[in-house]
Amino acid sequence: MAKDAYPPTLQELIRRLSRLPGLGEKSAGRIAMHLLRASDEEAFALADAVRRVKERIHTCPKCFHFTDGDVCSICRDPARATGELCVVETTADLLAIEDSGAYRGRYHVLQGALAPIDGVGPRDLRIEELLKRIEAEGIREVIIATNPSSEGEATAHYLMKLLEKRPVKLSRIAFGIPMGGDLKYTDKVTLEKALSGRRQVN
């Protein structure tokens, strides 16, 4: 992109847009040109939406998902009080499970995973709050839905050891071959998980 052809103000917008995930300099340039051609109302509404997100969005004090209220919509919903608590690493993981429509209980967002090499230990995650919720909310089952990475597995193992003597059912989400996947292209870890998580069919 010929940067000198753009006025400095437009260059600055493109530079900032290109720092967003998934946006390269060309895509950022196209978005900047779209905003330049957009009506004042449309452009200012977008800027105002970004400002409101930064001012109003915070973590839910119960589950640590994002919210703009006292607690998030999932924690507010009485139909979600199923006695099940799904533990995830991040809000992005929560949203992925929600999009599947396969789970209708409540969540607990750890806000990360154990990573000793990076200096992330149990005290850096929302584990203490998890223990308090299990008791306070009468949780009957804890579903550990951390990612199948080394950090996610370490976190799952730590939580299972921590909770094994508590009066709750513990479960770990299964991992395996994706629908439409091909065994010969599946990585070793996924195949191992698929085999160890096999179930009887007769």
Automatic annotation (TrEMBL):
Stretches annotated zinc finger (C4-type): 60-75
Signal peptide (residue range): none
GO MF annotations, alphabetized: DNA binding; zinc ion binding
Protein origin, superkingdom: Bacteria
PROSITE patterns according to UniProt: TOPRIM
Gene Ontology biological process terms from the UniProt entry: DNA recombination; DNA repair
Keyword entries, A-Z: DNA damage, DNA recombination, DNA repair, Metal-binding, Zinc, Zinc-finger
Pfam families documented for this protein: RecR_C, RecR_HhH, RecR_ZnF, Toprim_4
Limits of the Toprim domain: 83-178
Family: Belongs to the RecR family.
UniProt xrefs under NCBIfam families: recR
Role noted for this protein: May play a role in DNA repair. It seems to be involved in an RecBC-independent recombinational process of DNA repair. It may act with RecF and RecO.
Protein name as it appears in the record: Recombination protein RecR
